[in-house]
Amino acid sequence: MFYPRLGKNKKSNVTYMTSRQNIAKQAGLDSNWLQQLAGELGVGERTLRTQMKDFRASNRVPEQIRTFYPTERGIEMFGSAFPQIHTIDFVLSFLSSSFEEAKIEGVAFHKFGKAVVDQSRRRHILSVTKSLDAENLRRKEYWEARQSHIEEVLCGTYVLFRPSLTVSGDKSFKKVYTEIMHIRLNEEFPQVLQAYWRRWTQNKKIFYTGNFFISTNFLYGTFVNRSSDEVLKPVNINILSKHAQKSDLQQFVLTGSLTGTDFSQEKIIHYPIALKRTLPRQLPDHERFLGIDKINDTNFCEFSDALLDTTDVSFETDEMLEFIKGHHVEFGALALNNLK
């Protein structure tokens, strides 16, 4: 469970304070924690505050995250009250960015902050969800504020173009596959997007599902065949998601790359892809499928097939085919061992 923020109700406040103060006591963190931190780092309080302000204003902090960090006035007030979650996030980021790990390992605030974050991880088994949950704890307001932007800019239905295959499984650069990918918000983790992919394999269409991790200007995702009890032929996709202007969202084309294997899984293949966002008027059965939230893993295949059947989604140009051909890379799995 995430820690409740102060100010919601008295019972939550008591739980919040008791839990954090117990962690602080175990970590050896004093009530005047900034003075203690300065002493452990071997710098003066004034110098430490200045360094924190410089870090906050530096290009090491993305602008979108900076707005959720304490202000310069807030930094001046550090040490006068028990550290809240935004303060913990900021100070941990400052320490890890400004000092060697060996120097901060024994620092009381560092041990306190790590314990606060680790407490939210203990209900997890997978390290990925542990990290996401910890980040959600530290930057909950940041991700909540980002949701409407992410939904508007990244979520939606796309036509994905990639090199086609011959019946024998070899790549064909005479034309491209036209496939459908639908991206939507993930209900559990705001840092992740859920995605469904209707792709071709030889002469039939199959359903792949996966998640994209949201990074600065990029999406990174791994996709697998949902119908398989065994993970066969996973595909990794990277997408450049930075856009020129929001006004162009309805017609923009995304670029990216795909890494996977051939049918025998003996060769690793890597090549460029293109994604073109569909217009609302192109979506089939408008009343039934209207809205991102109405597309799910149950109706996606029917939706994507209807879209492919009713929409002119051609996007082949000589330049596009030459680009895909020129940037295609293929390695035999065993051949990699012999590379110098």
- CATH secondary-structure class of the largest domain: Mainly Beta
- Within the CATH hierarchy, at the fold level, what is the topology of the largest domain? Lipocalin
Poorly predicted runs are: 1-16
Estimate the strand proportion: 25-35%
Terminal-residue CA separation? 50 Å
Q: Strand order across the biggest sheet?
A: 1-2-3-4-5-6-7-8
Q: So, CATH architecture of the largest domain?
A: Beta Barrel
Sheet with the most strands, sense and barrel status: 8 strands, antiparallel, barrel
Radius of gyration: 25 Å
By helix and strand content, what is the structural category? alpha+beta
How many distinct beta strands?
9
Structural notes for this entry:
It is a single chain. β7 (253-261) and β8 form a beta hairpin. This protein has helices spanning 10-27, 33-41, 45-57, 63-66, 72-76, 85-98, 101-104, 108-119, 127-138, 140-153, 286-289, 300-310, 318-326; strands at residues 156-165, 171-185, 192-201, 204-215, 218-225, 235-240, 253-261, 267-277, 329-332. The chain is 38% helix and 25% strand. It has 340 residues and is of the alpha+beta class. It folds into two domains: 10-138, no CATH class; 148-338, Lipocalin (Beta Barrel), CATH 2.40.128. It has 13 helices and nine strands. The chain has an eight-stranded antiparallel beta barrel. α1 packs across α8 (108-119) and α6 (85-98) crosses α8 (108-119).
